[in-house]
Give the backbone structure.
Amino acid sequence: MFDQLSGRLQKAMKYLRGEAKVTEGNMSEALRQIRLAFLEADVNYKVVKDFEARIKVRALDQTVLDSLTPAQQVIKIVRDELASVLGTTDKPLTFASAPPSIFMLVGLQGSGKTTTCGKLAKWAAGKGRSPLLVSFDLKRAAAQDQLRTISGQLHLPFYEMTAAAMAKPRSALADLLQYTRNRGYDVLLVDTAGRLHVDDELMDELRIVKDVLSPVETIYVGDAMTGQDAVKSAKTFADRIGLTSIILTKLDGDARGGAALSIVAVTGIPIKFIGVGEKFDKLEVFHPDRMASRILGMGDILSLIEKAEQETDLKEAEALAKRLRRQEFTFDDFRSQLRQLRKMGSLEGVLGHLPQAGPFKNLAGARMDEARLRHFEAIIDSMTAAERTDPRMINGSRRARIARGSGRPVSEVNQLLRQFQEMRSMMKKSIFQKMMSSLK
């Protein structure tokens, strides 16, 4: 996500850090590098021009130039302005004061709208809400089947819109609203029609849905990989039917970032979620300030902590902490930690939240072999309970048996045993040092 843009902007920031003081000359060069980074990322030209002008005015302020760390102050200015372009502050989805809260999803075909409908339903259910999903597409019967399948996978209720009912769309929508209220669903997620391009027929259909249901949120779902096309279509939807929120999908793909960095400035509509994977839990709340920090290589530790809190079993973590204090870390504990880490998503995604400087410099952005971790887990699964508790008993014949059981070579078994022993020694050393320092 934003790799190309991030690399370019960090290069510009590094250039400023290398200067003894900020002058109009070196600031012009830094701004040139920033401008090129934005344009190569497919950011709207007007957005780039305004961004550059605001930074120049703030960076060349006499207070900044006279400060002890002018380069650091300029970097902070760039971060603040970048956050401003992305939407200043995060804004949560609005729920109606009286249920049901109706969320209407709109967008072009292929943007991931139907999958996002399922992701939002899972998110709402996780908030203790009772969601109902419905597909309202007067042209494409397959849309109904796709959302029904998603509902089944999530074990959430789905409302069937028959062809006969949709022949009278206003009446069908009124029946849907009555059904939602009668059954006590407090969230109604409406997946609407999409086309390969915007046309009058699509807009007329969406206006009917909006007029009858009066959604609390009209959400545009855009494919971040389409760049400025997503921005243009979002602007059209905003002008013709009105929008309250944006969700950008496929930000885990090879997206240059232009859509995210242009869409808020061009439409005036906030991004509220980003899709970072195909699974239904791969929907993240969008924090402009945190995203700005990540783009500039400053990391996003807060989001990483929140992700860990969601996936970590607190009782298990407390039990592990006690075992560590007693120096009883086993292969069972190691396997448990591997599984917890994998629950948080791809390793590259986790490491992408780390600052690209200081102690994390060699970790952030690293290409991690996730298959190797799965192989390690298979090797541990092939051990007996006694072997996982006391690896010292694993001799040559046992290593051969574990290798056969896991389908991995003996060399990998040896590597895992060696790394585990090194990890345990480091933990023992760390605990000993803490004990000694407490006695001083």
About this structure: The two ends are 47 Å apart (CA to CA). The chain has three domains: 3-86, 101-298, 305-439. The longest helix spans residues 410-439. The CA atoms of residues 227 and 259 lie 5 Å apart.
